[in-house]
Design goal:
Elements (H helix, E strand, L loop, with lengths): L6 H17 L6 H10 L6 H14 L2 H13 L7 H13 L3 H10 L5 H13 L3 H13 L6 H12 L4 H15 L5 H13 L9
Length: 205
């Protein structure tokens, strides 16, 4: 049993433990640690939820992730915490539920470039280039400008979906439209784009 005079000290230790667990890649311990924390009568905060969601995504524990989602909504934590919202998007995407991930993102009160990039990166991993391009247009319609990571994810999605022309067009306007100059990772991605399309020589034209 934990006595009142020790509750804050114990709470700090538990939250630090969650961060340590995920940092050390002991992700399979996180859901169990989360349950033990609740059994002790402690109320998880946003950081604890975020760490546990990362672990759930990493191990594909969708049931645990859904339970945490319900708890987060119940406490109305998503209204002011975009990082927690991004954590939910990431968890669902890692579990292969991209449609749910997008729905969660669109329902968030706060969305930023990181949240959108998280979803776009997931579409890239699943070779869904058209969906990644749709996300790019959607975020721009909300007044959110992509950063270099966002554009890299979109280029990657195009590369693995055979969308050579879309990737080429995006690459050409990076500097003029977004004021982002291509770095080595962007160039490597374009090598993949033209290589997959059998048009590697176009990269040097």
């Amino acid at each position: 049993m934990i006595y009142p005079q020790h509750i804050y000290k114990y709470y700090f230790i538990v939250r630090s433990l969650f961060s340590y667990i995920y940092t050390k890649h002991d992700k399979y311990d996180a859901p169990d640690s989360f349950k033990r924390m609740q059994n002790e009568g402690l109320s998880p905060d946003a950081i604890t939820f975020i760490c546990t969601l990362k672990a759930c995504g990493g191990m594909g524990a969708i049931d645990n992730g859904k339970q945490i989602h319900d708890e987060v909504v119940k406490r109305k934590l998503l209204e002011k915490n975009v990082v927690l919202g991004t954590g939910l998007v990431h968890m669902y995407a890692r579990c292969g539920m991209l449609e749910k991930a997008r729905k969660v993102l669109e329902e968030l009160h706060l969305r930023d470039v990181i949240a959108w990039s998280t979803l776009i990166a997931s579409y890239a991993q699943q070779r869904q280039g058209h969906e990644a391009l749709k996300c790019l247009k959607h975020m721009e319609s909300e007044g959110i400008s992509p950063d270099n990571i966002t554009l890299l994810c979109v280029l990657s999605a195009c590369a693995h979906s055979g969308l050579v022309n879309d990737a080429k067009m995006l690459f050409e306007i990076m500097a003029t439209k977004y004021c982002i100059f291509p770095n080595l990772k962007h160039l490597n991605c374009m090598v993949v784009v033209f290589g997959c399309g059998g048009n590697l020589i176009r990269l040097f034209q």
